[in-house]
């Protein structure tokens, strides 16, 4: 069986996580949310650790816990993600995951450009700022966080700015990535479009 790597990148709350999970489930591939790695480093830093030491010491248990998904850890994640040594410490784990024989979907910011430039399928998922803020606001409120839409929008914009402007692996689509704009799509439509791209890339 040919091992297929699917790289799904995009800005904060663009829908790439939902699409990635569904694509992985559809094809029976493993899924790695690489944002969680940076969030786990961010959480350790908020607890007083040095960012580079924290990235090198990361263990599976660090990827658990509801608080990882919150805005405070997210902001810290995008700060530590700008440090080249932090990114370097996380490369081998991501590449080993991508090479799994059963196929893998990785989502993040630099999967198609840096981690898996040879990926068989590359998607870059985007949505308007307003739609992204609305989706993340709903998600956070469902988890009981009291935040306003404006705060969520400002949080996303600050992270996108930092992620796009950093020198090390900035957020940008790979040249051979297909852009999937989910602004006017339902989840089902976005998932169907992503699956169609994977099928086309695998030869139908
Ligand atoms: O889910 P959301 O889109 O809000 O963020 P995430 O994917 O969990 O990523 C959190 C932060 O980690 C991002 O703002 C990036 O700074 C960083 N990140 C990265 O630099 N490279 C990746 N491959 C994944 C995440």
A few lines on this structure:
By secondary structure, the protein is α/β, with parallel strands linked by helices. Helix content is 52%, strand content 12%.
Report what the structure shows.
With 204 residues, the chain is an alpha/beta fold. It contains nine helices and five strands; from the N terminus they run βαβααααβαβααβα. The protein has a five-stranded parallel beta sheet with strand order 2-3-1-4-5, sandwiched between helices. Helix 1 packs across helix 9 (187-201), helix 2 (35-46) packs across helix 4 and helix 4 (71-80) packs parallel to helix 8 (149-165). The two termini are 15 Å apart. The model has no long low-confidence stretch (mean pLDDT 95).
Spell out the key features of this protein.
five-stranded parallel sheet; globular; binds cytidine-5'-diphosphate; 204 residues; alpha/beta
Per-chain topology:
Layout: E1 5-9, H1 16-27, E2 30-33, H2 35-46, H3 51-56, H4 71-80, H5 84-98, E3 104-108, H6 111-115, E4 121-126, H7 129-142, H8 149-165, E5 178-181, H9 187-201
Parallel strand pairs: 1-3, 1-4, 2-3, 4-5
**Which structural class should the secondary elements be placed in?**
alpha/beta
Overall mean confidence score, pLDDT: 95
Beta-sheet strand percentage? 5-15%
Main sheet strand line-up: 2-3-1-4-5
Q: Helicity range of the residues?
A: 40-55%
- Oligomeric description of these chains: single chain
Shape descriptor reads: globular
Q: How far apart are the first and last residues' alpha carbons, in Å? A: 15 Å
Number of helices: 9
For the sheet with most strands, the description reads: 5 strands, parallel
What is the radius of gyration?
Answer: 16 Å
